[in-house]
Amino acid sequence: MNRLNGKVAIVTGASSGIGHATAKLFATEGAKVIVGARRGAELENLVADIKAAGGDAAALAGDVRSEDYHKALVALAVEHYGRLDIAFNNAGTLGEAGPSTEVSEAGFAEALAINLTASFLAAKHQIGEMIKHGGGSVVFTSTFVGHTVGFPGVAAYAASKSGLIGLTQTLAAEFGPQNVRVNAILPGAVDTDMYREMNDTPDKQAFVTNLHALKRVSRPEEIARSVLYLASDDASFVTGTASLVDGGVSITRT
Ligand SMILES: NC(=O)c1ccc[n+]([C@@H]2O[C@H](COP(=O)([O-])OP(=O)(O)OC[C@H]3O[C@@H](n4cnc5c(N)ncnc54)[C@H](OP(=O)(O)O)[C@@H]3O)[C@@H](O)[C@H]2O)c1
After folding, report:
1. Residue 64 above 90 pLDDT?
2. pTM assigned to the model
């Protein structure tokens, strides 16, 4: 408890899944949380839940592809809570899947825009505000897909998510001197809407489950705990990492 007391955080992709669980955990740990995603009603429900549990949060609905949206999220954090210490840039999409020879240019570009360019735009506007108050922590949601494991049929997803690792390393090196830490978290399969969309039959779910050393997929709350670590001062000497939280999917060959 209270590991984020006095901190102000932005969480994107907070309307469901990993972002939703992380926003709740951040609030439980004392952070004031600005939550973002396109579905405003889900965000308002989340804010109500956080407030009912004694926490503090505010929502702003929008599309992470818009640079103005990131400016507005930072402005809201400053207006409501006076500062910004933590950003979990987590909104993402699977994008157009299928044989790479058939993926459209627009589908590939859309995945890059939501998963990679949006994360760059977010950090671009968050880091300056963090520096004003002595530094902060930025966490991006990448994935093991395209980093430690190659899967067929997900070129846009893998390319956009592995691009986040280069972005992480660059920002960590660039802003380390100002005490801004930047890390990427690489979850294994997590039981969320995205996972169920990708694995829409019991057979597919069994296949993916079996790829993990732990022989199960994660709950969003388990990923949230690792994001909390990276966001908090417990990780004060951790920066520039591609942090696997993947149930052993990257090392399993059985
Ligand atoms: N589930 C897995 O197995 C897994 C594994 C590794 C990494 N990840 C990554 O984890 C992150 C969260 O995904 P999830 O598994 O929690 O799935 P999810 O429940 O589908 O969450 C995706 C989130 O991203 C938001 N989002 C998508 N496009 C957006 C846009 N253009 N603008 C604003 N928000 C947008 C969605 O909100 P709205 O629809 O309301 O906009 C939603 O809140 C993603 O980056 C995903 O790639 C997931």
Report:
1. yes
2. 0.98
